[in-house]
Design brief:
27% of the residues lie in helices and 28% in strands. With 218 residues, it is α/β, with parallel strands linked by helices. The protein has one domain (2-215): Rossmann fold, CATH 3.40.50.150. Strand 1 (38-42), helix 3 and strand 2 form a beta-alpha-beta unit. The structure holds S-adenosylmethionine.
Length: 218
């Protein structure tokens, strides 16, 4: 936990992308959200994908442990906000966006009012194996039935590089969300040629996958 805080303090945020994620652009329609629908972005950092979602007229709820990330998101996007204390969180609230500063595992159903969709890019794969299990269980517990998750993962030979980002296989996605979710793989390609950091470490391949999960009643 403190490692993430120190990364933000020293600006070691190599995962942060200036461009909107192309898979989000490609598969955004699969959320099946009407305008003004609410989407949850767990472990949101200062992701520019949230700006894309706001531009689609959606409401965004995020959670992020670093106040630096949240304050940079608002300042870099020239958005006004107010700050308040809500339960264990500091809440940063702007027009159609609420970012909870605190621990994802402290979020409760009441913080995710009207959430119908979840966007996970570099969130599940930011966590080690134990935390991934805890994350999938907690996420499942706090979202409503029928909610859809767009989940982006990476898979590579884990022994050739330590995480984060961690390698998460299709089998693991199945195990993590098994029982509570309908799971559909939308996309999976080998893409080492666009991953110079992995190439430099001698990693043999990097598979990028996109899944659409839907919480179902069992
Ligand atoms: C790899 S970054 C990804 C950020 C964002 N999803 C993106 O695509 O840019 C992971 C983020 O999760 C945050 N984080 C890690 N564990 C967390 C937790 N338990 N609760 C809230 N935020 C957390 C870190 O501070 C970091 O900003």
């Amino acid at each position: 936990m403190t490692d993430w805080i120190s990364r933000w303090e020293s600006n070691r945020i190599g995962w942060h992308a200036e461009q909107v994620n192309r898979h989000l652009v490609q598969y955004y329609d699969r959320f099946d959200l009407s305008a003004e629908g609410t989407i949850f972005v767990p472990l949101c950092g200062k992701s520019n994908d949230m700006r894309f979602l706001l531009e689609k007229d959606l409401k965004v709820i995020g959670v992020e442990m670093s106040n630096i990330a949240i304050e940079q998101f608002f300042s870099e996007n020239h958005l006004d906000y107010i700050v308040s204390d809500v339960d264990k969180f500091t809440l940063y609230e702007g027009a159609r966006i609420k970012l909870y500063c605190g621990d994802f595992f402290d979020l409760k159903v009441k913080h995710l009012e009207n959430v119908r969709a979840i966007y996970d890019r570099a969130s599940l794969i930011a966590l080690n194996e134990d935390l991934r299990q805890k994350y999938a269980k907690h996420l499942s517990d706090i979202i409503e039935f029928d909610a859809r998750i767009l989940l982006l993962t990476l898979f590579y030979p884990q022994h050739q590089k330590s995480g984060p980002p961690f390698a998460v296989s299709k089998e693991e996605v199945g195990q993590l969300f098994n029982g509570s979710f309908d799971i559909q793989e939308l996309h999976c390609i080998e893409d080492i040629e666009n991953e110079p950091m992995f190439q430099n470490l001698g990693v043999d391949f990097v598979e990028k996958a996109v899944y659409l999960l839907q919480k179902v009643r069992m």
